[in-house]
Amino acid sequence: MLVGERRLAVRVLGPKIEDGMTPLLTDRAQLLAQLDAVQEFDIAIIGGGATGLGVAVDAAVRGLKVVLLEAHDFAKGTSSRSTKLVHGGVRYLAQGHLPLVWEALRERQHLLSNAPHLVKPMPFVMPAYRRKDQLFYGLGLKLYDLLAGPARLGPTRLLSHAETLLALPGVRITNLVGGVEYWDAQFDDARLALALARTAASHGALVLNHMPVSGLLTEYPAGRIKGLTCQDTETGQERSIKARCVVNATGVWVDQIEAMLHSKPGNAKDAKLPHAVRPSQGVHLVVDASFWPGSSALLVPHTQDGRVLFAVPWQGKVLLGTTDTPRPQVDWEPQALESEIDQILQEAAKYLVKVPLRSDVTSVWAGLRPLARTDEKPNEQGATHNVSREHTVKVASNGLVSVMGGKWTTYRAMAADVMQAIRKAQLVSLTSEDVTLDTKMSGATASASPYGTDAELLASLPGADLGLGPLPSHQLSEAMVRFAARYEYARTVEDVLARRNRLLFLDASAALAVAPQVAEILSTETGVSPELAAFEALAKSYQMP
After folding, report:
1. Percentage of the residues of the chain whose pLDDT score is greater than 70
2. Rounded distance, CA 278 to CA 255, Å?
3. Same domain, 141 and 171
4. Same-domain check for residues 363 and 287
5. Closest C-alpha among 407, 414, 408 to residue 392
6. How far apart are CA 352 and CA 318, in angstroms?
7. Is the backbone peptide bond immediately before 322 cis, with ω within 30 degrees of 0?
8. Which letter, b or e, does each residue of 459-488 get, where b requires 16 or more Cβ atoms within 10 Å of its Cβ?
9. What span, in angstroms and rounded, lies between the C-alpha atoms of 337 and 500?
10. pLDDT per residue as tens digits for the range 402-446
11. pLDDT band for position 328 (50/70/90)?
12. pLDDT tens-digit series, residues 467-484
């Protein structure tokens, strides 16, 4: 592709937005018209999670014709269900995965710089109940600082008994000798995914949610991938999309996409899955901030069963987690096991002065980690907490590019690796340059508001001062719902209350209470069903069983 052609592609797919300009409208009819106007894309990406959206940004910044299709909503799966931490991985440090830690610490710094409205530094404290533990973890975290180098967010400190209590006012005191303080960062995973989608669009990419891929197009008789088929969930209309390169960035669903190549049309379920991914479930419980007062997060690096325990302040609540349970089956809405809920509550009771009970949990949710399989035993279901979080990029002989594994913090590096795999396979002509190191996210500014530079536009919309239900306007307003529909691709109540706003993940009962109001506003904005009944059924599954 010539340089002039690349520039033309950007104009066809959408105008590039400069800093401070009004964001692109996300009218679905216009997006579909743009989709139909392109004869062939350079890259078609399947999956609107962190990895797929990262690839879309990288490819769009390079000036390529890019389309990304997400079956449900951006970050609907794994990418909205993390512990909300941008980190190098203290646990990986203990496991000896130093290259992974080093890479993640560098990527943490890029995120803090490129999305300062969504990513913030946060202090973490490990309480120590034996002096040797304090010294051991203190030494390890000094190495963490050393690996971070100039990207270090703050110095690691050994805390006295009194200093630990000041930093962790809710921690159990019995036998406490001190603690270790270190720094990482926190973010809103779903809103960062949304920022990636809007950033990709601002550079000319076409991104569409609620557009599941139904098949892969191949050349005859060579069998090379030449595109895909998809279906609009709102209208049922099917489309065939031609692309020079197709990227499978579907996380725990990567096997299902690859299986489309081994099945007859319409019978993908009958195909033998390749087993490229080993899913692992992580569960989080959300409780009131009174159970963990203060601004520092708790980290217990080694619980009785060898996992990690977090108590993390987030958006006025506290996240308790997480588990690491092998799960052979992948679901869009994985359910927490009773044993996982009990495990988190039992471990939390060992460290929190105010012990949370099942009745105190305001929301419970689970996510599936797409761990890249490295063994030769596809049916093995052993422990996964020691499985590496490194990613793998595979280019099949038919040209399908699949990416497995990884974690949120390193999404940008994963996307860059995908693009280099495409270059080496000569699927699309690219340079070896890493182009997104300093690419600012949509809305990026040093602001306390997650809307960043869009906060002024939000404030100008109808209902900016009208909180929904009993909620204050700064938590959820009528204007936020309108903004989600007009500028953030929201189509359903779930899109708004699970990912544009995080109320479902914070308090399922509160989300149920305001859902009808959200549905009414969405109906006015989009003219389609906001799927209220489906959301109400979903929200009940986030309540403690």
Report:
1. 90
2. 10
3. yes
4. yes
5. 414
6. 12
7. yes
8. eebebbeebbbebebebbbbbbbbbbbbbb
9. 27
10. 999 989 999 999 999 999 999 999 999 999 999 999 999 999 998
11. confident
12. 999 999 999 999 999 999
Which residue carries 């290259």 as its tokens?
99
Q: How many residues does the chain have?
A: 545
Identify which of 153, 144, 41, 47 has the alpha carbon closest to the alpha carbon of residue 406: 47
Do 398 and 516 belong to one domain? no
Judge whether 401 lies within some domain.
Answer: yes
Do 308 and 292 sit in the same domain of this protein? yes
Per-chain mean pLDDT for the chain: 90
CATH number for position 54: 3.50.50.60
C-alpha–C-alpha distance, residues 57 and 61, integer Å:
6
Whether 211 and 231 have beta carbons less than 8 Å apart is answered as yes
> Cβ–Cβ contacts within 10 Å for residue 236, how many?
7
List Cβ neighbours of 89 (8 Å cut-off, separation of 6 or more): 97, 100, 101, 104, 389, 407, 409
How many secondary structure helices (H) and strands (E) does the chain include?
17, 18
Q: Is residue 451 part of a domain?
A: no
**Number of domains, the chain:** 3
Domain range for 404 is 3-15+34-78+191-275+390-424
pLDDT in tens, 356-394: 999 999 999 999 988 876 554 444 444 444 444 588 999
How would you write 414-481 as a 3-class SS string?
HHHHHHHHHHHCCCCCCCCCCCCCCCCCCCCCCCCCCCHHHHHHHHHCCCCCCECCCCCCCCCEHHHH
Q: For residue range 120-156, list pLDDT tens digits in order.
A: 999 999 999 999 999 999 999 999 999 999 999 999 9
C-alpha angle 269-73-437 in degrees, rounded to nearest 5: 110
